[in-house]
Predict the 3D structure of the following.
Amino acid sequence: MYAITGITGQVGSVLGQQLLDDGLPVRAVVRDAAKGEVWAARGAEVALADVNDVAALTRAFSGAEAVFVLLPPTFDPSAGFPEARRTIAALREALAAARPARVVALSTIGAQATEPNLLNQLGIMEREFSTLGLPVTFLRAAWFIENSLWDVPSARTEGSIASYLQPLERPVPMVACADISSVAAELLRETWSGVRVVELEGPARVSPADIAASFARQLGKYVNARVVPRDEWAALFTTQGMRNPLPRMQMLDGFNEGWIAFEGTPRKGVAPLDVAIAGLLKR
């Protein structure tokens, strides 16, 4: 049995379906019964569990050969990441009690970075899960190409996308969710001992200018990328409703300054940029 958290999201949904298509038993861990019905109709077992409910998570993970863990993203955290710490503690306690044969946890490029930034949440998860005494793999994925979903409206209507990644021509490690799901499915079926890190990026690094050009190819019109100046970020993010934009700004600084980076040599995915962008435009 493969227990999958985050199965209603863009990575987990493809992962869960891939395992089912391969004839493997899947337990969909969801907090919404209605969303669970969708997976039950596809042939999955359903376990209802909130990510902060240790007892429910323990039941969901018990008897599993492997568990895929996706920490729910908190883009506007309180100082010190109490939200993420609470969820990480619940997940760790449940995994320690259930003792699945192995765990694959979705992490991030730069999880090892010590500089303060939004991705420190995944570094905390890695440190906590590393003490489980279970076979654990941290899948450190590059910047999601699917983050460009936010750019679809402006690309369509204005022929322009806003970029916080700068300079516009500098390639950044990025990866499509399809590659993440495919590699996660592979890792879940492997056997290993101890704790290991697998880093993953797409077949080629991608700049903001590349993303604009991909939108242009798909839309059949000119699309340009424009820089959002660093001194405008705080006010803009606050206007968008963020209470604590600093960690997000620090993360962007890390990509732009190069200290959010892979620790080793990453695996290469196969999904090209144009395919991922075309998928966003169909949503």
